[in-house]
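Hi L.,

You mentioned the student needs an example of a multi-chain input paired with its predicted structure. This one should do, with 387 residues in total across all chains.
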Amino acid sequence: MKVLLRNPKREVEVEGRHTVNSLLARLELPRESHLVICNGTLVPGDASLTDDDVVEIRPVTSGGA
Amino acid sequence: MVAAGSKCRTCRGPAIIDLPRHNANFCAEHFMELCRRQVTKAIEKFAMLTPEDRILVAVSGGKDSLAVWDLLIDLGYQADGLYIGLGIGEYSDVSGEYAKAFAAERGLHLVTIDLRDEYGFDVPTASRATRRVPCSACGTSKRHLFDKAALDGGYTVLVTGHNLDDEAAVLFGNTLRWDVEYLARQLPVLPARHGFPKKVKPLVRLTERETAAWCIVRGIDYLVDECPMAEGNKHLAYKAALNAIEQESPGSKASFYLNFLDNMAPLLAGTTAAATDTLQECRSCGAPTTGDLCAFCRVAEKSRAHEPVPVELVLGKGRGRR
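Structure written out for the whole complex:
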């Protein structure tokens, strides 16, 4: 499945079936600092993703204090 | 996508977000309800705002500031926005567009200030001229201009989008240094005093994952890209450390910060009184300061004397300070 990542903006191909949580773990991205948007909608950790889905992993951490 | 098995804690409908710190999942409607409840609780507990207040929201075009502006309007408050163009190359250009679009789409009033146009310098130049990390010059400039705009505009309260992660990270840094003076000032409300407006942080009970989710659920288009000059700063390192703890022990960030406010902050009250009593007027702009020139005017004086520095030349300057 194609996954859009941010900061910097790029697309990666991830093989195999994944839930949101397993996808984040596969990409070594902490759940606490990311949201996953599938086909334009927020999805929780146990949602299953398929090859046809448009998936974006959005970081939520801001650097300013 | 195969629908998630998790259900909303409130209505048992399909969940869109899991919040381990609440040990619960929520649908869009009840997630928004949770956010409204958390913000209302913060506003009421710390006496942040009244319906009569004239509110100015500091807006960057990012998720937190747009979320807090949206939440305040949603909760029935009247609030204008303030955007400051900091001259951080394309990043500032784009962030300004998000702030302006948000205001225009909702018919809200946005005050804009451009640091280069109105004060003759920008953040990359200030960083180079003062030989400080970019976040230092940026913070000094923003705090000064927020205060000035609020006072000049007759606003009674200045709102910032600091969230639970921001406050927990600052608390973590202050605690690592046992910086008692900074710890004593780390409150979600700073009362108005001579030369300073009242400042409040209504998002202190929401994590940044929650403020970002609020924006997505509400259809708020915000600047996702991180400020290129923030890369490598200590604040991000503290957030990463706290998130590693949170992953193992959900709710730790909230306990760390909110229990500090309940249990520790009262013990530190009054620690800063002596320092604030000795403030005098800056000889250049009249703002309160402990010295002859305020921090902003010192930065401005050095920066205006320096030739403009493109953002690319100071990128990643915070690296190595973790």
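You could point out the following to them. The first strand of chain B starts at residue 17 and ends at 19. The radius of gyration of chain B is 20 Å.

Best wishes,
N.
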